[in-house]
Specification:
By secondary structure, the chain is mainly alpha-helical. The protein contains 6 helices and 3 strands; from the N terminus they run H-H-E-H-H-E-E-H-H. The protein has a 3-stranded antiparallel sheet. The two termini are 15 Å apart. The relative contact order is 0.10. The model has no long low-confidence stretch (mean pLDDT 90).
């Protein structure tokens, strides 16, 4: 467990935070559809991972307020990227599902971002690349805590 009072741990946490933020900002610019906000892209990514969700579930997963998610879902629906369907158990609710158009756009976006990131990784030596491959599952775990 990191001890932020320990100089090496504090420096490592600071370096990790800074690097992840810079890399994230740069990855966000590697988009296929510039008309979508990062939040809209994130919602589509969440739907790709979970299949479908209610607007309330999406709001919790995306750490936004439910009224904000309602607006985001409405924008995505207007763009033909999600559809709202009746909830199978609670007719008062709707379930949000991504459309085939969204799936294709996300796949193209992943391809573009992966290619960009692979291009950067080509500049690493074998030892650095091996460390980065080993760190990927740990970073994935951190992202979902």
């Amino acid at each position: 467990m990191p001890d932020l009072s320990h100089g090496d741990d504090a420096a490592a946490v600071n370096s990790l935070r800074s690097a992840v933020m810079r890399l994230s900002r740069r990855l966000k610019h590697q988009r296929v559809d510039e008309s979508l906000s990062p939040t809209e892209m994130s919602v589509l990514g969440t739907l790709a991972r979970c299949g479908h969700a209610t607007p309330g579930e999406l709001a919790r997963k995306e750490h936004v307020q439910p009224p904000s998610m309602t607006r985001i879902v409405a924008l995505l629906e207007a763009k033909g990227l999600v559809r709202l369907e009746p909830h199978p158990e609670d007719r008062r609710q709707k379930v949000v599902t991504q459309t085939e158009t969204a799936e294709a756009m996300l796949e193209e976006s992943r391809r573009k971002r992966n290619a960009w990131l692979a291009g950067l990784a080509e500049h690493l030596d074998e030892d650095d690349w091996a460390r980065l491959r080993a760190a990927a599952p740990v970073l994935e775990k951190l992202a979902h805590l």
